[in-house]
Amino acid sequence: MRIALSGGGTGGHVYPALSIVSALERELPSSERLDLLYIGSSSGAEAEIVRHAGVPFKPIASAPIRGRLPWEMAANGARIAAGTAQARALLGEFQPEAMLCTGGYASFPAALGARSRGIPIALYLPDLYPGWAVRAIARLAQRVAVTAIESLRRLPSGKTMVTGYPVREEFWLTSRREGRQRLGLDAEEKVLLVSGASSGAHSINRSVASDLPGLLELCEVVHLSGAQDAPWLAEIHDSLPKGLRERYHLHGYLHEDTPWAMAAADLALCRAGASTLGELPAVGLPAILVPYPYAGGHQKLNARYLQRKGAAAILDDHDLDRMLPVVGELLHDEARLQAMRDATRRLARPEAARRIARILLELQEDGL
Question: Virtual CA dihedral for 283, 284, 285, 291, nearest 10 degrees?
Fold first, then answer.
């Protein structure tokens, strides 16, 4: 079976696609091989993540569907046209039986290329709110899967289903005890996981750095900083007194061990990208969510959804100077933490990846 994949900009678009691929491999007969091609942007997070997963990757030109100024719109249109032609050529050579799109503007020209070749498209929306690219692809797709029921009213009816967010199988295999062993964490200490998504979050990193001694008095900190800020944070790490330095676990990025880091933690301080809707529930991890303020409101909607469900608290980016007391208050309120854990676990959807994989199989079987 040949499947083309597209989606990117952040790990929240890429990891669901890889999770669905893993589920699809488990659904196929043992005699059948799965061939993959990932089409995305070379400037997004997808290239490194996809190549690390061992999936062939081909970049195409891409741009946002809209622009603020007329000449921006014209330039974006030209890049989308070029990307569509590139995707059409790649798909003509690869000849997939279906395409899976997970959003991000790089997936729009890929979807146009697939449509021009008559290749059926399955679309998965990771965020609660569909952006311009997703809404455009939804019109081209034969099937649309969404994380939560709140998204249905914003998408075409008749071909949409609620599946939940597909996370990697590793998330369902983790344990707090083994996660702490893997990362060298104390078995009994409180642990805060700080993460700025696949590329890091500079404002969160600066806030953690400014309050780091106070944080380390409260708990051990596992900090996934992103590659760009890792060097100067490493200097701060090395300058800490030995007792505090041993409690600060800095990583530019984690691939395979991310699920274990999340399972090991008592609380997360992180952005509210699409992945939080699936990964936090999978390990029952309460969170303080800091929505990225320049993401078209997507992260705010994700954060409010988890807050309404009792799984998270929200701290605005401009209020990060309040981070230390908010973290301290939650870590010392075990009853509230446990209530948040229970609320988060109720949102877990272990079958999400398998359900979307079956959509792809249905497209193949129906010959759409």
Answer: 100
Architecture label for domain 2-165+350-366:
3-Layer(aba) Sandwich (3.40)
Eight-state DSSP code of residue 295: S
Work out the average pLDDT over 50-79.
85
**pLDDT tens digit string along 218-246?**
999 999 999 899 999 999 999 999 999 99
**What residues does each domain of the chain span?**
2-165+350-366, 170-345
Answer yes or no: same fold for 2-165+350-366 and 170-345: yes
**Structure tokens belonging to residue 263:** 């399972």
Q: Is the pLDDT of residue 199 over 80?
A: no
3-state secondary structure of 32: coil
- The model's pTM is 0.91
- Over residues 72-122, the pLDDT tens digits come to 878 888 999 999 999 999 999 999 999 999 998 889 999 999 999 999 999
Instruction: List the beta bridge partners of residue 98.
Output: 3
Tokens 């030109």 correspond to 61
Residue that the structure tokens 């303080």 belong to = 288
Helical (H) or strand (E) element with 356: helix 352-366
CA distance 41 to 325: 40
CA separation, residue 345 to residues 194, 283, 338, 348 (Å): 20, 7, 11, 5
Question: How many angstroms separate the Cα of 364 from the Cα of each of 14, 32, 99?
Answer: 22, 13, 10
Residue (of 275, 288, 279) closest to 215 by Cα position: 288
Is-contact 263 174, C-beta < 8 A? yes
Q: Which residues neighbour 55 within 8 Å (Cβ) at sequence distance 6 or greater?
A: 5, 18, 21, 36, 37, 38
pLDDT at 66: 65
β-sheet bridge partners, residue 146: 125, 162
Proportion of the chain above pLDDT 70, given as a percent: 97
In the CATH hierarchy, which fold is given to the domain comprising 170-345? Rossmann fold (3.40.50)
Mean pLDDT of 64-74: 74
Tokens of 367: 């010959």
